[in-house]
Design brief:
384 residues, alpha/beta, Rossmann fold, 5-stranded parallel β-sheet, 18 helices
Length: 384
């Protein structure tokens, strides 16, 4: 098992500050493993809502939970969203000493009443699959090719990993989505998800997706939001700077896990990926996920103007902006677009992340950043 101390620390810290903590992320990303570690260290009761016995135990939740004074863990809470109102009553009792850790595979906006019922009482910890700081830079290639889901990354071979990812896609569409009360045919959503994979790294165009699906833009956007809320697609929002230029105002599309992206594109091996036209976009999405999840920040955007200037990733911290360009090349170079971004966005610094082994300056405010050094730069505070 690969240790995940950063996420464990986040859970412990949130439990100290909140009566309820939600550990959220896609299925099979390791939520249950972390929750069982936390539960093993204190007096606890564990309820897995995919276990019929535990589901039966919670048929009368006030009776089942009311006398527990330690830690209550409820796994796959999206299967029983009415529990959120019960949890509010429990934590608001005078003298309540119980802490509650809930695990979910959908964003609160997809689980009816989740945010409203526990407003001011709940903390959130977002979990993903493995990242480079956990598996080591020597494992960059398999992490990128296979993706971050533990069972895919740790599989005995490329074929086994690929088969696991295809099974995940099927189960997600046929079982997980219906459990959220969403009645969309699995074939329709798979077709849409595959279309998103082919647009990975591009700006959302609702009209084009609607035409391809033979539906309305509103319906296409609904599908987009569902997959985003289930943590399998990222909508990277645009930054609108106050400058006199026409700027792109639609989000960019990314399949969050690179391994799932490759499965949707029918790329079984790393060799097939290297010769595919989406290899650069795949690398871009992989690095963006590493940066976003490592910094644990929601102040993340891309920037693009209709004149052609753009920036792959923009962070704000302490009132200062830092930019990231992501290039799948052996020798990154400065471009006119980079200099425009530095000037128009008043960037503190711009990093060009690439797959090489050396980090070196390209300019006073531009650094070619080796993927090997990405996490050390982020942790040292040289980036936001």
């Amino acid at each position: 098992m690969i240790d995940r101390p950063v996420y464990l620390d986040s859970i412990y810290h949130s439990l100290e500050s909140n009566p309820v903590v939600a550990l959220l992320g896609p299925r099979q990303c390791g939520k249950t493993t972390l929750a069982r570690i936390v539960a093993s260290e204190r007096d606890s009761e564990y309820f897995d809502l995919e276990n019929p016995l535990d589901l039966s135990r919670l048929s009368n939740p006030m009776l089942a939970l009311g006398n527990i004074s330690g830690l209550i863990v409820i796994d796959e809470i999206q299967r029983k969203p009415e529990l959120f109102e019960i949890l509010r009553v429990l934590v608001d009792r005078p003298g309540n000493s119980a802490k509650i850790l809930v695990l979910g595979s959908a964003a609160p906006r997809l689980i009816k009443g989740a945010s409203e019922s526990l407003a001011g009482r709940i903390g959130f910890v977002d979990l993903s699959g493995f990242n480079l700081s956990e598996v080591g830079v020597e494992n960059i290639a398999p992490l990128w090719h296979r993706g971050a889901f533990p069972r895919s990354f740790l599989a005995s071979g490329e074929r086994t990993s690929y088969e696991w990812r295809n099974g995940f896609i099927r189960t997600f569409l046929e079982r997980d989505i219906p459990q959220l009360g969403i009645t969309i045919a699995a074939e329709t959503l798979l077709r849409f998800w595959t279309m998103l994979a082919h647009y990975h790294g591009q700006v959302w165009n609702g009209a084009e997706f609607a035409r391809s699906l033979g539906t309305s833009e509103v319906t296409a956007r609904k599908y987009f939001d569902i997959l985003s809320g289930a943590y399998v697609v990222r909508q990277l929002q645009p930054w609108h700077a106050n400058i006199k230029k026409r700027q792109v105002k639609s989000p960019k599309i990314y399949i969050r896990d690179s391994g799932i992206l490759h499965a949707l594109l029918f790329l079984e091996t790393g060799r097939q990926l290297q010769s595919h036209p989406k290899v650069g976009a795949s690398w871009e999405g992989f690095v963006i996920e590493e940066i976003v999840l490592s910094c644990q920040s929601r102040n993340v955007y891309f920037w693009s103007t209709h004149a052609g200037a753009e920036l792959d990733l923009l962070f704000f911290k302490g009132g200062r902006a830092t930019g990231f360009e992501i290039k799948y090349t052996d020798a990154p170079k400065t471009t006119k677009s980079m200099r425009i971004a530095i000037k128009d966005l008043q960037l503190k610094h711009l990093y060009v992340v690439y797959p090489g082994n050396k980090t070196y300056p390209l300019d006073e405010l531009i650094t070619a950043l080796s993927i090997n050094d990405l996490h050390s730069v982020l942790l040292q505070g040289q980036a936001p």
